[in-house]
Amino acid sequence: HIIVMIKVLYIGGIIMKVIISPKQLSGTDLFRFEEEYNDKKRYSITSWLFFLLLGGTGAHRFYLRDINGGLLYIINLLLMLLSVTVVSAKAASAASSILEMDYRRDALAGIMAIVFTLAFLTNCTFWIIDLFRLPKLIYKTNKRIEKEILMKIIK
Q1: Facing residues of 6 across strands?
Q2: Where are the beta strands (DSSP E) in 1-154?
Q3: Which of 9, 52, 146, 155 is the residue whose CA sits 20 to 30 A from 116?
Q4: CA nearest 81: which of 108, 109, 128, 120?
Q5: Cα–Cα distance between 133 and 141 in angstroms, integer?
Q6: Nearest to residue 17, comparing CAs of 28, 27, 8, 30?
């Protein structure tokens, strides 16, 4: 797959489109492109390792330059940690285990249990979706990197 850039030139009142792809580069530009692309491209194995080992934190999304996707994972993770902390503190103050708590009487603990469940299910859903989308996310990220480098070279 080759990315194609279209550069619009305005020459003497005529708009011309010049198609630019890495195959059209030669000499120093081609060397510069390949060197910069190899430095910046995202590797599949690294993405999969981040996904499998740190998937619940969104590390694979941050690695693929998807800050918003990574932040969704982090927010869900923080909600889970907050809710577990609150429910554990309530259980400790009541000198009972989390399983023995009466969530109908303690509204905050009940709400936090629901928050934990929703955040956990949301994170699991994101993770399952990313399981199938990761190859496409890697491909799109590398194409975006390729495009950025080409735009820098043709300017």
Answers
A1: 19
A2: 5-11, 14-20
A3: 52
A4: 120
A5: 12
A6: 8
Pair 101, 109: CB distance under 8 Å: yes
Alpha carbon distance 67, 70 (integer Å): 5
pLDDT digits over 21-76, tens only? 676 777 888 888 889 999 999 999 999 999 999 989 999 999 999 999 999 999 99
Output the furthest CA–CA distance in the chain (Å, rounded).
Answer: 83
Q: What is the pLDDT of residues 76-123, one digit of tens each?
A: 999 999 988 887 777 667 655 556 666 666 777 778 888 889 999 999
d(CA 138, CA 151): 20
| Cα atoms found within 13 Å of the Cα of residue 18, Cβ hemisphere only | 13
Cα–Cα distance, 142 to 101 (Å, whole number): 50
Torsion-angle region of 95 (φ positive above 0: left; ψ -120 to 50: alpha; else: beta): left
Question: Which H or E run includes 9?
Answer: strand 5-11
Task: Check if the beta carbon of residue 41 is closer than 8 Å to that of residue 142.
Answer: yes
Q: Round to whole Å and give the CA distance between 40 and 122.
A: 31
Looking at the whole model, is its pTM more than 0.70?
A: yes
- The answer to whether residues 80 and 116 touch, using CB atoms and an 8 Å cutoff, is yes
- Provide the token pair at 11: 């020459």
